[in-house]
């Protein structure tokens, strides 16, 4: 994919993932896994933004 992400869509994805994390806080049975081919583009961007937004 060569187009830039729409920021509002990316933030919506992050919020949805955080909601899943919060629903699993009590049992910790289902970790969130992020997978990509090399982990350097979309995957890395997602992980970095998630970490930065939580701080």
From TrEMBL:
<dbReference type="InterPro" id="IPR000242">
    <property type="entry name" value="PTP_cat"/>
</dbReference>
<dbReference type="InterPro" id="IPR029021">
    <property type="entry name" value="Prot-tyrosine_phosphatase-like"/>
</dbReference>
<dbReference type="Pfam" id="PF00102">
    <property type="entry name" value="Y_phosphatase"/>
</dbReference>
<feature type="signal peptide">
    <location>
        <begin position="1"/>
        <end position="19"/>
    </location>
</feature>
<protein>
    <recommendedName>
        <fullName>Tyrosine-protein phosphatase domain-containing protein</fullName>
    </recommendedName>
</protein>
<feature type="domain" description="Tyrosine-protein phosphatase">
    <location>
        <begin position="12"/>
        <end position="55"/>
    </location>
</feature>
<dbReference type="GO" id="GO:0004725">
    <property type="term" value="F:protein tyrosine phosphatase activity"/>
</dbReference>
<keyword id="KW-0732">Signal</keyword>
């Amino acid at each position: 994919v060569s187009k830039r992400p729409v920021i509002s869509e990316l933030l919506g994805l992050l919020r949805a993932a955080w909601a899943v994390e919060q629903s699993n806080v009590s049992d910790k049975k289902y970790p969130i896994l992020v997978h990509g081919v090399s982990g350097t583009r979309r995957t890395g961007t997602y992980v970095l933004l998630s970490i930065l937004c939580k701080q």
